[in-house]
Design a protein that fits this description.
Strand order of the largest sheet: 4-6-9-12-15-18-20-21
Distance between the termini: 50 Å
CATH architecture of the largest domain: 3 Solenoid
Number of strands: 21
Number of domains: 2
CATH class of the largest domain: Mainly Beta
Radius of gyration: 23 Å
CATH superfamily of the largest domain: Hexapeptide repeat proteins
Largest sheet: 8 strands, mixed
Length: 267
């Protein structure tokens, strides 16, 4: 089998693509020392985009099975080496992970991104977050699956937001896992004082945050609001302008404020 040594200067960015290459080759993806690849025109591939992956040596595979695996691995590596920037407005924060062929657009996407977690935002493969805002608090995290489309929406996460595969979210929609302020009047006064310039570092009252979970193949129309603690089942259709305050069962069709199931209609 042909062996090639790969040097990775941006290891975290290359990691998902190298894992795919190893899996295609039938090799343990946790071993990142060498892999089998078919002959690769490195000079042409590297001239397109210098992203820190260099094939230092290669030999041609000698049987059909190895050659097919080599071609698959080669294609994955070339796709990595030639792909465009994942965010159109600059380098991604170091604790953001994007899968292959996923894109984030909009200069304000990370203007309120404060998370200190190593895995603050994970976006799967073949996703597009168009002018979407990721307002993730210090301890918050967001997980988004594969083949998702987010159009000018806002994700507010102080705890956790989980979104499955094949999910579409319309413009102007907000998903929040917290109210960002206490609900009790006395606590709201204390919170306002703590946030004022004269607070003298007074601590804010504890504010509840509960995970939001959105299963696979969900459609969320424009200008919707998804509130904390909600679980939206697989295949749900949410009409534009709906305010979702409670769990929605799989394949339901909902609308309104608060959102209720449209009787006799299933998505």
């Amino acid at each position: 089998m042909a062996l090639a040594r790969i040097t990775v200067t941006n290891f975290q960015k290359a990691l998902p693509f190298l894992r795919q290459a190893y899996i295609a080759l039938g090799v343990n993806p946790n071993i990142f020392r060498s892999c089998a690849v078919e002959e690769l025109d490195t000079s042409r591939a590297l001239s397109k985009c210098n992203v820190g992956v260099t094939v230092l040596s290669y030999r041609t595979c000698h049987n059909r099975e190895d050659a097919q695996r080599g071609r698959t691995a080669r294609n994955i590596i070339v796709q990595y080496m030639t792909q465009k920037s994942a965010w159109d407005s600059g380098p991604l924060p170091t604790n953001v992970r994007l899968g292959f062929n996923s894109r984030i657009t909009g200069s304000a996407a990370f203007s309120r991104f404060l998370s200190q977690r190593d895995d603050a935002l994970i976006l799967g493969t073949h996703c597009c977050a168009l002018d979407t805002g990721f307002a993730i608090g210090t301890h918050g995290k967001v997980r988004i699956g594969n083949y998702c489309y987010l159009d000018a929406c806002t994700l507010l996460a102080e705890h956790e937001i989980q979104i499955g595969n094949y999910v579409m979210i319309g413009w102007g929609t907000t998903i929040s896992d917290t109210d960002f302020h206490p609900l009790e009047p006395a606590e709201r006064i204390c919170d306002a004082i703590a946030l004022s310039p004269l607070s003298k570092d007074r601590a804010r009252p504890k504010i509840a945050a509960y995970s939001v979970t959105i299963r696979d193949a969900v459609f969320i129309g424009p200008a919707c609001t998804i509130l904390k603690g909600v679980m939206i089942g697989e295949g749900v259709f949410i009409e534009p302008g709906s305010v979702v305050t409670r769990d929605v069962p799989a394949h339901a069709h909902v609308r309104g404020n608060p959102a209720t199931i449209v009787q006799g209609e299933r998505s």
